[in-house]
């Protein structure tokens, strides 16, 4: 079968964002749109000839078609072997694991993460490097430059492969290895957490609900929670991945996982609740009557991870993204661990993990992970929580309250202003940046600005500097507000305002979050002119 070289012209908008190229499905369906981007990725993989590539996606609408396109193009570009999940499915963490364990040169992951799917929803293509993590900036920039100048792509004229059965088949010279998406991932989890201990807790009557939001983690959670850990059938709800996620917005937060929140705050709440997102890398943790913020979750995991077999030797260090609350910093300080502050985006943890400087890391955007792979990992976080609950013999809500009694509580909320006009959002950030030098010492209500800057990250491993990652304003009263624009949206701009305020160990830990943060929110508006610039009286989403 001769390789086809087909002429094409570039699209100007193929610059990958925080996490790969994300656009609406109709954009991806434009003739040559997928092909251009995939060819650009392949062109940027040095040594792809004969190498192994991992491929899979979260099963959203268009996943099947794009898997077939990528297979043909990979074969036409000389790739030696593609390890693909059965039916083209792989959660992001499972893909990261396969890239590492199969010594692949990288992986192509099809997902728009937590964005809604379906014919009018979002789609995405992301390239992960041989360490299993999202490609670093120089690589995504190279892909963008390639895509901006592309003139032809290579493919084959072959029928679709049947991806429904495990095993190996040949596509011209390339081996296509179809694997069960769950097996290797589940085996890895058995090495990290103590399944026997959790099984014993389940046998003792412990009950939980896991809401897969009709996205990729359903089969993973059913296998691990129900089959391997012995939880009753029905523990996993919305467990079948659907192309449109059954209309769910697969973002595990109190707003989008409302049913789970209602259950956990109602009279029939089980001991523990959890959810994951479209591609399985985010997590949501809920105790009985208590939503655990991702920032608090990271702090609790850092404080107790050593009870799990995977972390028995202790942690090398921890990291959090800049807008994530400083709760984990307090744990690190007490344990004498290095604590790094990185820009938003999982890729920034990669170097720290590869260099062995950190073991755990996390972000306010519901991502938590460790050195077991190079992506955040939703189900892993749930399992580590379960192991900690089993080891401490305390329910999640008690663990969190005890944590606050020991370290104090960082009240935390994120206010999102979605669909803001791009110019208005840019103007807000420009004015804010310009105002920074004059902010220190100014008072806003009862708060006094102590420091204010535009966060720039110096990577301690490779020395690279990433400037302009968001504005931080720190108040003398141990409160903080962070402003940044989302890097993952597909239309307009989203302004994110992150608010936090510390309450010491002997302080008040039972205030409604909105009350605890009211003064910080007012200061944020006064500083940035949110209403003035966006015309909005209130955020679209508060999480
Ligand atoms: C993706 C990345 C995360 C990041 C998040 C931020 O999910 O994988 O690492 O925290 O995007 O999204 P944002 O919309 O705030 O740029
Ligand atoms: Zn995700």
Automatic annotation (TrEMBL):
Record's keyword terms, sorted: Isomerase, Magnesium, Metal-binding, Phosphoprotein
Pfam families in the record: PGM1_C_vert_fung, PGM_PMM_I, PGM_PMM_II, PGM_PMM_III
Catalytic activity: alpha-D-glucose 1-phosphate = alpha-D-glucose 6-phosphate
InterPro entries given in the database record: A-D-PHexomutase_a/b/a-I (IPR005844), A-D-PHexomutase_a/b/a-I/II/III (IPR016055), A-D-PHexomutase_a/b/a-II (IPR005845), A-D-PHexomutase_a/b/a-III (IPR005846), A-D-PHexomutase_C_sf (IPR036900), A-D-PHexomutase_CS (IPR016066), Alpha-D-phosphohexomutase_SF (IPR005841), PGM (IPR045244)
Keyword Isomerase assigned: yes
SUPFAM superfamilies reported for this sequence: Phosphoglucomutase, C-terminal domain, Phosphoglucomutase, first 3 domains
UniProt GO MF annotations: phosphoglucomutase activity
Domain Alpha-D-phosphohexomutase alpha/beta/alpha stretches: 14-153, 184-286, 295-407
EC numbers, comma separated: 5.4.2.2
Region (Disordered) location: 1-20
Cofactor annotation: Mg(2+)
Similarity annotation: Belongs to the phosphohexose mutase family.
Protein name in UniProt: phosphoglucomutase (alpha-D-glucose-1,6-bisphosphate-dependent)
């Amino acid at each position: 079968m001769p390789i086809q070289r087909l002429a094409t012209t570039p699209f100007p908008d193929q610059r990958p964002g925080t996490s790969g190229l994300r656009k609406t499905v109709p954009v991806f369906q434009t003739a040559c749109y997928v092909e251009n981007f995939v060819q650009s990725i392949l062109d940027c993989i040095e040594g792809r000839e004969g190498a192994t590539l991992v491929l899979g996606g979260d099963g959203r609408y268009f996943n099947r078609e794009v898997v077939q396109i990528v297979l043909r193009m990979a074969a036409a570009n000389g790739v030696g072997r593609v390890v693909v999940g059965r039916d083209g499915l792989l959660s992001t963490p499972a893909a990261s694991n396969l890239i590492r364990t199969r010594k692949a040169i990288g992986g192509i992951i099809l997902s728009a993460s937590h964005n809604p799917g379906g014919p009018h929803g979002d789609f995405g293509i992301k390239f992960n490097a041989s360490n299993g993590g999202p490609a670093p900036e120089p690589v995504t920039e190279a892909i963008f430059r390639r895509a901006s100048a592309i003139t032809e792509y290579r493919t084959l004229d072959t029928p679709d492969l049947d991806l429904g059965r495990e095993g190996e088949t040949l596509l011209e010279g390339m081996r296509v290895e179809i694997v069960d998406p769950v097996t290797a991932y589940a085996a890895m989890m058995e090495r990290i957490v103590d399944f026997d201990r959790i099984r014993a807790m389940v046998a003792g009557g412990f009950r939980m609900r896991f809401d897969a939001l009709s996205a990729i983690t359903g089969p993973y959670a059913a296998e691990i929670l129900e089959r391997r850990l012995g939880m009753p059938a029905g523990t996993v709800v919305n467990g079948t991945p659907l192309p449109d996620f059954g209309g769910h917005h697969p973002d595990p937060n109190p707003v989008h996982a409302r049913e789970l929140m209602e259950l956990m705050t109602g009279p029939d709440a089980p001991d523990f609740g959890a959810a994951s997102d479209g591609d399985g890398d985010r997590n949501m943790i809920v105790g009985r009557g208590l939503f655990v913020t991702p920032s608090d979750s990271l702090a609790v995991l850092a404080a107790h991870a050593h009870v799990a077999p995977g972390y028995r030797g202790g942690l090398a260090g921890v990291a959090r993204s800049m807008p994530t609350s400083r709760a984990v910093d307090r744990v690190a300080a007490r344990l004498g661990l290095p604590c790094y502050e990185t820009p938003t985006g999982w890729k920034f943890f990669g170097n720290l993990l590869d260099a062995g400087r950190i073991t755990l890391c996390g972000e306010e955007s519901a991502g938590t992970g460790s050195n077991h792979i190079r992506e955040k990992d939703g189900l892993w976080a749930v399992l580590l929580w379960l192991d900690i609950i089993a080891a401490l013999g305390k329910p999640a809500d008690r663990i969190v309250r005890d944590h606050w009694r020991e370290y104090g509580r960082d009240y935390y909320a994120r206010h999102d202003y979605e669909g803001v006009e791009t110019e208005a959002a840019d103007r807000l950030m420009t004015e804010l940046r310009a105002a920074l030098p004059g902010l220190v010492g100014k008072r806003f209500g009862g708060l006094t600005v102590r420091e204010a800057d535009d966060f720039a990250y110096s990577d301690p491993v490779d020395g690279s500097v990433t400037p302009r990652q968001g504005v931080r304003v720190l108040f003398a009263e141990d409160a903080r507000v962070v402003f940044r624009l989302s890097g993952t949206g597909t239309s307009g701009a989203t302004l994110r305002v992150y608010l936090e305020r510390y309450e010491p160990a002997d302080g008040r830990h039972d205030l409604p979050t909105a009350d605890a943060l009211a003064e910080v929110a007012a200061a944020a508006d006064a500083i940035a002119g949110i209403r003035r610039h966006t015309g909005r009286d209130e955020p679209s989403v508060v999480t």
